Amino acid sequence: MSVSPPPLKRRRLGNNETKSTTLSSDKDRISIYSWNINGIQPFIQNSITSYFQSKKPLSKQSETPATASLRDFLRRHGWPTILCLQEVKINPHDDATKSAVRQAVKSNAEGEPDYEAHFCLPTDPHNARGFGRKVYGVCTIIRKDFITNHQPKVRSVEWDLEGRIQIVESQDPKLSIWNIYAVNGTDNPYKDSNTGAVVGTRHDRKLAVHKHMLDEAKLLESKGYGVILAGDMNIARSQLDGYPNLRTSPQQHIINRADFNKKFFDAEEGLKAIDTYRHIHGDKRGYTYYPRARKFGSSCDRVDLIICSGSLEKKILDAGVCATERERGPSDHVPLFATFDIGQDDRTT
């Protein structure tokens, strides 16, 4: 499992074949990180660094312990172009917390890049109301030079009122980059957002969101966009993506998995997307969800993905997961990343 992205001089393929790539300049490269942080609060409190302190002394070869600081995260990972955070758990009316996050990503050292934070938080009057509405929610953190150079539009989608999907779109190049916290299918009721009437279960809602996502992505592709979906999909795709075993009960989880794979990977009428981790690493195992109640690595799943349109396949430079306890921090997920050369043409290099 990758800990941090290696130098971007070659694009590694899953079958161990290598192809040279040439970056004309840094502006042609975009790096996207995604992380379900399971709550933003630790990242705007100074005292939270205790979460990351190792009880054992670090060897000279050990990594520097991570800290619950968004600036430190961005610095440690080479100033990603976009950082997609899921499950930020911010009340939509909590302007103080949103302001604190914006302050936390601002540059505080000369020569370091600046960032903007954008939020999509739950507004559904009948769903996503627990815990004082501090549930779900995504935050997309964008480096300001990307904003200056490409003038992206940041938007939500009309079919999501739970704060689960935020989209960053640029015209040159034509990219649509999604920050996703997908529905976790359960037997709990899902209510109509307008009437409050129960219209199914959260499993039903998960399948409906899959359909909405596919339709939106296909529409964007028809308009010439390359689509990148990044986030917690709440789906482990195959046996390779669960340890020690892939979850197979209740039966509805198998149905949800099959539906996701069909719509986004397998069906001719689907998205036919590229799983960036599998594209780079083939069948190598790598996981993103590490529950805190168990020893790290004893039970884990790859439920966070960065997938993209087939038109972007030759533009993928690297992908991986940052699978260490220190990178997990106060969350129960570790970050993942994918890097693209948006300056390449479609010729094989």
Structure description:
The record marks 234 as: Transition state stabilizer. This protein is 20% helix and 25% strand. By secondary structure, it is α+β, with helices and mostly antiparallel strands. The protein has a single domain, classed as Deoxyribonuclease I, Chain A (4-Layer Sandwich). Mean pLDDT is 88; it is low at 1-24 and 47-66.
- Rg value: 19 Å
How can the largest sheet be summarized? 6 strands, mixed
Known CATH architecture: 4-Layer Sandwich
- The helix fraction, in percent, is 10-25%
CATH level-4 homologous superfamily: Endonuclease/exonuclease/phosphatase
Which runs of at least 5 residues are low in confidence (pLDDT < 50)? 1-24, 47-66
CATH class: Alpha Beta
Write the H/E string, N to C: EEEHEHEEHEEEEEHEEHEHEEEHE
Question: Would you tell me the structural class of the helices and strands?
Answer: alpha+beta
**Total individual domains:** 1
C-alpha geometry? globular
Strand order in space, largest sheet? 5-6-4-3-18-17
Q: How many DSSP helices?
A: 7
End-to-end separation in angstroms reads 27 Å
| CATH topology term | Deoxyribonuclease I, Chain A
Question: What number is the mean pLDDT?
Answer: 88
The fraction of residues in strands falls at 15-25%
Give me the count of strands.
Answer: 18
Domain Endonuclease/exonuclease/phosphatase: 34-333
Pfam family, one: Exo_endo_phos
Cofactor: Mg(2+); Mn(2+)
Family: Belongs to the DNA repair enzymes AP/ExoA family.
